[in-house]
Specification:
The protein is an alpha/beta fold. 35% of the residues lie in helices and 26% in strands. Bound molecules: S-adenosylmethionine.
Length: 195
């Protein structure tokens, strides 16, 4: 496994990404054709910025990627990148509307600080996913999509059920580039209902 991680580390360096997380998003995007030219996308938990770098290239000059994180971004912002600094639990969430009237995709790679207690970590990760779903409800256009990362635990089934209620289709995804031992898994909701 270490060799696989070294492979992604080197690949990230070579391709100019600030983190290898970019390859998880790339893998999901290639398989599910999520990101298109001109898309408006919210990227929650965007620091250090590799998802934003990947998205920025794919959406081109007419798209916008709005990153949010409690840690200030250090990467150079391209013309189609915007950044809001803040904790998702404390931000005035209506701020997103000032960047675009509606969005095609909300993605969240947010991860809580881990305590080592699996139930506590999973519950915190679940809470961050709840915030991402809220942002998605408020900002997505009709048929928009949401991608969230969750730490597997007792709360996983609850999140899956909620997303099945809110989206026409929900996919469970474990990218190859995610460490095997990591408890993270992604849920992709396609076609937001009731818009
Ligand atoms: C795994 S990193 C994201 C990596 C990023 N996708 C990339 O490709 O560079 C998780 C991020 O979630 C952010 N985060 C965790 N809790 C948050 C919160 N309550 N509000 C905002 N950001 C949060 C952390 O600051 C951290 O930068």
């Amino acid at each position: 496994m270490k060799q696989v991680q070294d492979h992604y580390f080197k690949k990230a360096k070579k391709e100019g990404y600030v983190a290898r997380s970019a390859f998880k998003l790339e893998e999901i995007d290639v398989k599910h054709k999520l990101i298109k030219q001109g898309d408006k996308i919210i990227d929650l938990g965007c620091y250090p910025g590799s998802w934003m770098q990947y998205i920025s290239k794919k959406i081109g000059a007419n798209g916008i990627v709005l990153g949010v994180d409690r840690t200030p971004l250090k990467i150079q912002l391209a013309d189609n990148m915007r950044f809001v600094h803040g904790d998702i639990n404390e931000l005035d969430l209506s701020i997103t509307a000032s960047f675009a009237p509606s969005f095609d995709l909300v993605c969240s790679d947010m991860a809580p600080n881990t305590t080592g207690n699996k139930s506590v970590d999973a519950a915190r990760s679940f809470q961050l996913c709840q915030m991402a779903l809220l942002v998605a409800q408020d900002n997505l256009k009709k048929k928009g999509a949401t991608l969230v990362k969750i730490f597997q635990g007792e709360t996983f089934d609850q999140l899956l059920k909620q997303m099945r209620d809110e989206y026409d289709k929900v996919k469970i995804i474990k990218p190859k580039s995610s460490r095997n031992e990591s408890r993270e898994i992604f849920l992709l909701g396609l076609n937001l209902k009731n818009k």
